[in-house]
Every structure is written in structure tokens, then in C-alpha cells.
Amino acid sequence: MQFQFNTDNHIQGDDNLADKAESTVTGALGHLTDRLTRVEVHLADLNGAKGGSDDIRCTIEARPEGMQPHTVTHKDADIDASLRGAGKKLRTLLESEFGKLDKRR
């Protein structure tokens, strides 16, 4: 599985943050990573320097093998919470989609 990490100009996207994002998202997805070809994570600070609650948006796009891409978005107060929330949403979505597929087979 290929992992791609992007940030906007308000978030410093260094290697440490990229590694943290990858471990958080792949940890949330667990065994589902075997069925994915690529995962893209996009972090954005919606309010810039102003701060505030729910101003970090994490969008994750997962590309399952042989299927259309799936995207989830989660907003939270900090980067870690935003990554965890989006990872949980994506896991739920993919488990549902893969469960439907497996039932048909």
C-alpha cells in the first residue's frame, strides 16, 4: 500500500508528522490495509492562526483494489484527534463496503 501525506500552508508537514499520520491511519485501518492500493491524507487548518475548536480538518482518501476510491472527512481541535477520527470513520466505511462485497461472493 502506498501512503501519501499532504498539508496546507498553515500546517508544518515535516517527516515526523508524516510518519505519525501514517502510523495513526494504518493503525486505525488494521487488517484492511492489505486490500488497499493507496491512502492519501490531507490535513488543513481551517482558521489559520486564529485557532478555535474543530479547526483542523483531516480528509482521507482510500483506494481499494478494484473499487472506486472512498473519502472521509473529520474536523477536530488538534491534528492527532483529527487523524484518529478520520481513521475510525474510514475503517467503518471500508468494513461496511468489504462486508457487502464478501457476502456476495
Tally of distinct domains:
1
Mean pLDDT: 92
| Overall geometric form | elongated
Structure annotation, total helices: 2
Using only C-alpha atoms, the radius of gyration works out to 14 Å
CATH architecture: 2-Layer Sandwich
What's the story with the biggest beta sheet? 4 strands, mixed
H/E element sequence: EHEEEH
Q: What do you see in this structure?
A:
This is Sigma 54 modulation protein / S30EA ribosomal protein. InterPro entries: RHF-like (IPR036567). This protein is α+β, with helices and mostly antiparallel strands and 105 residues long. The protein has one domain (2-104): Double Stranded RNA Binding Domain (2-Layer Sandwich). Helices cover 39% and strands 30% of the residues. The chain contains two helices and four strands; from the N terminus they run βαβββα. A four-stranded mixed beta sheet has the order 1-2-3-4, with helices on one face. Helix 1 (15-29) runs parallel beside helix 2. The chain is elongated.
What is shown here, in short?
39% of the residues lie in helices and 30% in strands. It has 105 residues and is α+β, with helices and mostly antiparallel strands.
